[in-house]
């Protein structure tokens, strides 16, 4: 804990359990070209707070990770943090974006794994405990950071519950970044 690791987009595809639970198609990563328009999202996810406050989940069942994406079908995952209401990841990612002008948001879901208190009807023990849709920085090299509110679906109601702290920056990438 506390060690920052840059995770490439190829490593983001390692957690197929979540993707298959959402009936996602297999993730296909296209090869990186070396045009000057190539952009990557540099993102560090620090922690979440006040998530899952009113659930009856035991400490042993509090296994959280964050799933995030800019381009649908290209999800990335933090490692799983166990046993905490306010999980800390301090994990950095660099994710290529093929057509940056087509996308405006970073989508985030805080997921609880291996829980018997998952929503009724889910037999896989996976539950989304918070979601956010955060506007991407408007310009290349403009850093955006802060504490962003999460919402949670309870029945037909959407409730604000918890926050996620992160920083992100769109960067021009060069062929040597992934070489």
Automatic annotation (TrEMBL):
Protein name, as recorded: C2 domain-containing protein
Pfam family, one: C2
InterPro entries listed in its UniProt record: C2_dom, C2_domain_sf
Residue ranges, compositional bias (Basic residues): 19-28
SUPFAM superfamilies, per the entry: C2 domain (Calcium/lipid-binding domain, CaLB) (SSF49562)
Region (Disordered): 1-35
Residue ranges constituting the C2 domain according to the UniProt record: 21-149
């Amino acid at each position: 804990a506390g060690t920052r690791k840059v995770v490439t987009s190829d490593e983001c595809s390692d957690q197929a359990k979540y993707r298959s639970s959402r009936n996602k198609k297999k993730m296909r990563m296209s090869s990186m070209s070396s045009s000057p328009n190539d952009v990557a999202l540099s993102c560090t996810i620090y922690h979440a707070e006040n998530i899952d406050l009113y659930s009856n989940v035991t400490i042993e069942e509090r296994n959280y990770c964050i799933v995030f994406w800019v381009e649908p079908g290209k999800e990335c995952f933090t490692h799983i943090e166990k046993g905490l209401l306010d999980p800390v990841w301090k994990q950095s990612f660099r994710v290529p974006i093929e057509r940056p002008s087509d996308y405006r948001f970073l989508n985030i879901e805080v997921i609880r794994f291996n829980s018997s208190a998952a929503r009724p009807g889910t037999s896989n023990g996976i539950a989304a405990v918070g979601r956010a849709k955060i506007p991407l920085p408007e310009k290349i090299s403009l850093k955006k950071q802060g504490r962003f509110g999460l919402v949670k679906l309870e029945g037909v109601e959407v409730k604000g519950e918890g926050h996620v702290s992160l920083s992100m920056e769109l960067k021009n990438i060069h062929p040597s970044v992934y070489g």
